[in-house]
Specification:
The chain has a four-stranded mixed β-sheet with strand order 2-1-3-4, with helices on one face. It has nine helices and four strands.
C-alpha cells in the first residue's frame, strides 16, 4: 500500500499523525502544504479536502481527513503495534484523555483561531495568553489522569493515542511561552518521547518543509 501524507510541518494535527505513522513503522510519502502561503485554499488541495485543512492522507485512490479518523483507521488497518489497549474500558479512557487535547485544547490554539484572535485586536502577548489559558486548563486535567493511569507513558507502559496527541501540544505550549513546570508527569512523558525514534522522526524540525 502506498501512503501519501499531505501535511504542514508545524501543524499539531499533522504532527500527531506523523507520530502514529512512525510508531506503526509505516513508510509514507510526504507532501507539504504551506498554510501560511494559503496552499490549503488551492484548487488542487481543495479537491483532496474540501475543508482545506491538514492532514489529508491518501491511499489506494482514497483520501482520509481529520486526524482522529486517520489514527483510528491506522489502528484498525495496521493493528501492530497497538496504540490502544486491549480492554474496552481502557480503550475508552485513552480516547477520553486524547480528546482533552484534541477537543478542548488544540482547536482553540490552531492557526485559524489565532488569526481570528488577532483580528479582534490581540497582540502577541494577548495571543499567548489566550492559548495559555486553554492549555493550562487542559493540562491540569490531563496531569491528573496521567497520575491515575500512567506508567512509562500517559496510559501504561506503551505509547498510545494520548502520547501522539500530547507531544505536539507540549511543542505548541512552548511556542506560546507556557511554563510546563506545574505538570511534571506530562513533562516526563515529553522527555521520554524526545529519545524515542518514532517521536524524533515526526518532530516538526525534521520535516522536509520545515523553516
Amino acid at each position: 500500500m502506498s501512503i501519501v501524507l499531505h501535511d504542514y510541518w508545524r501543524s499539531g494535527t499533522s504532527y500527531r499523525t506523523r507520530i502514529a505513522l512512525q510508531l506503526k513503522g509505516l513508510a509514507y510519502e510526504q507532501r507539504g502544504v504551506d498554510l501560511r502561503a494559503g496552499v490549503q485554499r488551492s484548487e488542487a488541495f481543495q479537491a483532496l479536502n474540501p475543508q482545506g485543512l491538514v492532514p489529508a492522507l491518501e491511499f489506494d485512490g482514497r483520501v482520509l481527513t481529520q486526524s482522529p479518523a486517520i489514527l483510528e483507521w491506522l489502528e484498525e488497518r495496521f493493528p501492530e503495534p497497538p496504540l490502544l489497549p486491549a480492554r474496552p474500558d481502557a480503550r475508552a479512557q485513552v480516547r477520553a484523555m486524547a480528546a482533552i487535547i484534541g477537543c478542548d485544547i488544540h482547536p482553540l490554539n490552531n492557526l485559524r483561531v489565532l488569526k481570528a484572535v488577532r483580528d479582534l485586536g490581540a497582540d502577541d502577548a494577548g495571543v499567548n495568553a489566550w492559548a495559555g489559558r486553554w492549555i493550562t486548563a487542559g493540562f491540569d486535567a490531563l496531569e491528573a489522569f496521567v497520575r491515575k493511569h500512567g506508567g512509562a507513558w500517559c496510559f501504561g507502559d506503551l505509547p498510545t493515542f494520548v502520547d501522539c496527541y500530547l507531544v505536539p501540544q507540549v511543542y505548541s505550549a512552548r511556542r506560546f511561552a507556557v511554563d510546563l513546570g506545574p505538570w511534571p508527569l506530562i513533562g516526563a512523558v515529553d522527555e521520554r518521547a524526545a529519545s524515542h525514534p518514532a517521536f524524533q522522526a515526526a518532530h516538526p524540525d525534521r520535516q522536509p518543509d520545515a523553516d
